[in-house]
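Hi Prof. W.,

I finally got the LysR family transcriptional regulator ArgP prediction working! I wasn't sure whether to trim anything, so I left the full sequence exactly as given:
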Amino acid sequence: MQYDPSQLAALDAVLRLGSFDAAARALSVTPSAISQRIKALEDRAGAALVIRAAPCTATPAGARLARHASEVALLEAALARDLGQPAPQARLRLAVNADSLGTWFLPALAGLDLLYEIVLDDQAFSADWLRRGEVSAAITDHARPVQGCDAVPLGRMRYVATCAPEFHARHFAGGVTPEALATAPLVQFDGKDVLQHHWLRRVTGKALHPTSHRLPSTQGFLDAARLGLGWCLNPESLAAPLLASGALVAMLPEEPEDLALTWQVNRLVSGALAPLTRAVRAAARQALLPG
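And this is what came out:
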């Protein structure tokens, strides 16, 4: 079944921008034209594609069709380049964990003729975006390939448990013991973030649940630790200068936490995304520990 490119473009714009009016402005048409194109596309697909709310979101069928349109655009752009023809700039939707984005991943995106839409999610959940068909590639902690995807091991991101010297003196004067860790407040990215709790269980053998701050920012984690709000696991590459200067201290330097990362790509577009995969692997080799 073939779909009208203008209708697919309307669907992409509505879902990406969140409204029919914004899609109309982006495509230089009227909102009525966008509505007509979406209605025609829904008639052809035989299903509702857009949940008309504020913002507009995709139904499962809409998300699948939007991914199809994105994949076709990626394949057509790759074909044009292979034939030495001007290639249209395709849009690529990725799921990436915040710490990778905040440390080593962005340089891999430079120099490739793509438009990126990056979804932030915990590495333990980013594979779900692939399973739902909402992204074409993801950084995940799942070593096993998601169905229909190729999996490329990248290496291990090392984290160190850190806190401010004053915080250490206040909460860990008698040592970084299970009793002290049970009461010292920690910093957590969000409700999905269990990295600190995994570390606690590994080093203490106990399921501890201290009070926590919620702070969804990689740089914010580092700043929160430096300012004495709590302790947390920070990427070693980010924490190293502050550890060297004494602004942070490593709580148990002999107990780092290593997180194995994998690049997963939808197999249908893996060929079209081969240059990006090579760039991601090169960036990972420079920044991560061998797997």
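The longest helix spans residues 60-82. Does that look reasonable to you?

Thanks,
D.
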